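quick one: farnesyl diphosphate bound model?
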Amino acid sequence: MAKMQEKTPQTPLEGGPQHVAIIMDGNGRWAQMRGRPRLLGHHAGARRVRDIVEACPGQGVKYLTVFAFSTENWKRTQTEVAGLMKLFRRYITRESRDLFERGVRVRFIGDRVRLDDKLVTLMDDLELLTSGNDRVHLTIALNYGGRDEVTRAAKRLAYEIEAGNLSYKDVDAETLTQFLDTQFLPDPDLVIRTSGEARISNFLLWQSAYAEYEFIDTLWPDFTADEFAKVVGGFAARDRRYGAVKA
Ligand code: FPP
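yep, here:
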């Protein structure tokens, strides 16, 4: 399979974000407003993911991380959870080849233990298939929760100490970061949440310590590449100081 030619910037646009993370909210309301089942909104939402991934290179965004299913989402009705799992399996099956050909490297974060074996196999296969790609890095958070991730990281760290491979004296922020699901990612520069809710909802808690946040009223299935470009463009105008005083 031929890979798409690289025509787009490799580095962020002047002052633009390198890593954008998105809480894709509002699928259910989008469907309900149309008198349709909530799952239809999730299907429409999945189509949006493709548009936004495609918009990334033109905006200089190298890393895109999307929140597809949280550790709390299991509390939804059985019908919705089963429908979402089926959607993830279908999305991976249908989009794999296209993602590969477009130079997208796909990785998943979150706890795979509770996911069904068929889905996990599809996730592993897609990660492997796209492992040589570097045009856009798409990370999909699936059965992901920030607290759960930090807890799992702490447990693995404790295991290494108990096994004698590490000393407690080695534990600092840098070491803990290496045990997180996101060890391969830079921290997000910008976190976008759609649908008018101003909450973080347990998304990338550790990694977003210095991120800028944008809360957008648009429901996720209506969030276009143009709107994405506007939000990303607005980021450059912000003054990020990471706790320091402006020079
Ligand atoms: C939140 O909207 C959205 C979700 C829990 C699922 C997100 C999934 C997708 C966008 C589709 C699949 C994604 C991929 C990567 C294949 P909500 O249901 O909470 O909406 P509401 O707040 O209006 O009820």
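Residues 139 and 191 are 14 Å apart (CA to CA).
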